[in-house]
Amino acid sequence: MNHNRKGWQSNRKGERGSVLAMTALSMFALLLAGGLAIDISHFYTAKAELQNAADAAALAAASQINSTSGGIKSAVNEATKALNKYDFKNIVTVAASDVTFANNLNGTYVDMATAMANPASIRFAKVTLSPKPVTASLSALVIPKTKNISATATAGLSVGLTMNKFYTAYAFIESSAAPLVKGQTYSLSAQAHNNTTPTSYRVLAGPDGNLILTGQIHAYGYIGSSYNIANLTQANMCSYAKIGMNTRFADYSVHPGANPTDHPPDTIIQENITFDQYSTMQGDGVVQRADGMKNRRVITVPIALNSTYNVGARTVVSNRLAAFFVKRKVGASCTLEVEYIGAPMAVPEGTYAPGGQQMSTISIPVLYK
After folding, report:
1. pLDDT digits (tens, 9 = 90+) for 325-348
2. What is the distance, to the nearest Å, from the Cα of residue 331 to the centroid of all Cα atoms in its chain?
């Protein structure tokens, strides 16, 4: 009996050793599985963050596309700035070669220099972030210690908008015999509300009849819409034009109550330059006013034929909305000198509705893939 009891006790001691070993292995397996789950989650998070950075960089690049070589250069600059807002900034940088351009979404993407040689057709920008190492901290025994993660994003200009927001409160009047031509510079004269002379401008009134000052406004612009002309004399049209335009050149003499905070100038206030020169200066990082805002000299305006001008009702009907570049301040002659851009370019906000009349040259940046 005693002999059998000792044998039984000896077997129990062996089983206790096996249980301890199994428990240790189970705990190790659980810890390894937990570490593996954490590391895989870390990889997915890193991939998502890197993709977000690429998306933001591509959208920032697309927002600068404006059919000029300077816009291409600005696109590369803005892509770099957008990426550097993310946590990857210490190990991820965007080189000019990482940003490529194309005229079609699925077309051939070319480098910055090639795109700058033919900027008028460019509508899409792609950002490709090369593989970056992400370290596995808890499961390096079963998976590689580092995993390379990359991201690609493509953004570009949308189809032509059917509604544009933040248009500038002017109406430019033209005649069917001499329509405004894209790429041309015009000296538009100020005319009274009851004058239908073409090649001129009017200051708009709000829907309730109140005057809209000639800054950017929260309004909706559509082709074919009726716009209300303010009940102003020629001299007063000129006065409000000076207030609205000259502050963009940091000239507040015509509006003593204005200031750079409430009515910021453009970052570039040099007069008598072309839109192409202006875009090139932006692409080269030129800043003449540190308190300024980019693209304050680019305005979107309803254009209307003088034949649609209803003098009694003080309304005109727009045949299109288009972008213009303001070349200089409004002076004693009251002329507003602008360049009709008329090229595919991005505006801050607008929408597209299927079946609506499109503004062929005005788009917004869209993330495609």
Report:
1. 999 999 999 999 999 998 999 998
2. 32
What are the sequence ranges of the domains in the chain? Answer: 2-157, 163-363
* 260 CA to centre of own chain: 23
Environment class of 321 (CB within 10 Å of its CB; exposed 0-12, middle 13-18, buried 19+)? buried
Give the list of residues 6+ apart from residue 222 with CB closer than 8 angstroms, or none: 162, 163, 164, 318, 321, 356, 357
Taking a C-beta distance cutoff of 8 angstroms, is the pair 311, 289 a contact? no
Cα 241 from Cα 228, distance rounded (Å)? 16
Cβ–Cβ under 8 Å, residues 316 and 221:
no
Give the full edge-to-edge strand order of the sheet including 146-157: 99-102, 124-135, 146-157, 365-367
Tens of pLDDT, residue by residue over 186-225, are 999 999 999 999 999 999 987 666 666 655 555 789 999 9
State how beta strands 315-326 and 99-102 pair.
unpaired
43 vs 145: CA distance, rounded Å: 12
Q: Model's pTM, two decimal places?
A: 0.83
Q: How far apart are CA 315 and CA 310, in angstroms?
A: 5
Q: What angle is formed at CA 116 by the lines to CA 113 and CA 122, rounded to 5 degrees?
A: 120
Distance in angstroms (rounded) separating the CA atoms of residues 147 and 58: 24
Q: Which two tokens stand for residue 47?
A: 């991939």
CB within 8 Å of 16: residues ≥ 6 apart: none
Strand partners, 173: 200, 304
Largest CA distance in the chain: 127
Is-contact 93 117, C-beta < 8 A? no
Strand partners for 204: 229
